[in-house]
Amino acid sequence: MISRRNLLKLAAVGALGSAAAPGRSSAQTPLDKKGTAANSATNSTKLKIIALEEHYCLPALFNEWGRLSPEIKGGILFHQKPMAEMLEDFAEKRLARMDAMGVDVQVLSLTTPGAQVFDSATAISFARMSNDAGARAVAAHPDRFQCFAALPMTAPAAQSVAELKRCVEELGFKGWLVNGRSLDRQLDHPDFFPIFEAAAKLRVPVYLHPQLPPKSVRDAYYSDPRFGGPVAEGMLAGPGFGWHVEAGIQAVRLILSGLFDRLPALQIILGHWGETVVPYMDRIENAARVRPEKLARKIPEYFRSNFHVTPSGMFTGGFLPQAIELMGVDRIMFSVDDPFVPLPPGGARRFITELPLSETDKARIAHGNWEKLTKRS
Questions:
Q1: Count: domains in the chain
Q2: What is the rounded CA–CA span in Å between residue 354 and residue 351?
Q3: Which domain range does residue 193 map to?
Q4: Rounded distance, CA 31 to CA 16, Å?
Q5: To which H or E segment does residue 197 belong?
Q6: Average pLDDT per block of 10 residues along the chain, 377 residues long
Q7: DSSP 182
Q8: CATH number of the domain residue 8 falls in
Q9: Catalytic residue among 188, 330, 337, 338
Q10: How far apart (Å, rounded) are the C-alpha atoms in residues 3 and 120?
Q11: What count of other Cβ atoms lies within 10 Å of the Cβ of residue 317?
């Protein structure tokens, strides 16, 4: 096992080869002194790059969100123009952004908070409307787009199960993206078990995306006149920090609930390099030992068998070696978080090309791991 210290040193000098987490395998490709793969037939500048956390929205959904109470929608204004215009576009401008950054395929998903903040009837209507829009985009550009399903989580679970089956079996969607809790129900609530069970039976992954923390948490931790007003507070509670903790808590709750003991084949994807969980895994595992009877395995073992991570446009720092040490290269995939994370020309492809990994492992991260995960036959 490579220590975290050595992984960080290797990453810093660009000499990190193909490393695997304990108990996992990863093909070894030797690196030359410059940190590039030796004797590799793969040219990383020509790799197909599939980005997983790439968002869209609809004008009607923006309007419906606008009717929500401030308690539910919070103070975030990042869905305003010009962001809204980019989210609503499925054609020329989006494709141009993809070409510019070096992304070949986007896996589209309805942007947060999705349909999870509406009453049952409204959630059913907007989830279906959004999924149909995503399906039309995929049909128009099947070589450029794939899609995650949005589900009406506030409706009875049978509605979400039916919509997930429709999206996967009829529309060809690759999985389901969920924005953490739904109103006041945490993601590990027993009501949601049939939906996870359906995803496991359909053999499709679940992308666990963040959303704003509850209002009580926002008020307690992220609201202060010194922060600069509602927009600044919303950004701090949201993509600046708060919702990454929120998503990480949801992931840990899923493990502690015993979900993966009941559904050992279920696969979860976390963006932002694991939504605060990966770097704190040692602490999380130590704290969880107070109730060892709850789980069949240690928490890190669930991460190695049931979780995957993507960068979500976070292309700096020591995140990569931490993820490799914990999970192995075969559980790391790629994402940009478009259009919320603007990349310079060639930014996505440059990130893959300059990874201090073998060409084989670059290909895994760029597209191979995702294609393997979503191969249902």
A1: 1
A2: 5
A3: 4-373
A4: 8
A5: helix 193-202
A6: 44 40 37 36 72 95 84 62 90 95 97 93 97 98 98 98 98 97 94 98 97 86 82 82 92 94 97 94 80 80 96 89 95 96 92 94 97 89
A7: B
A8: 3.20.20.140
A9: 337
A10: 49
A11: 12
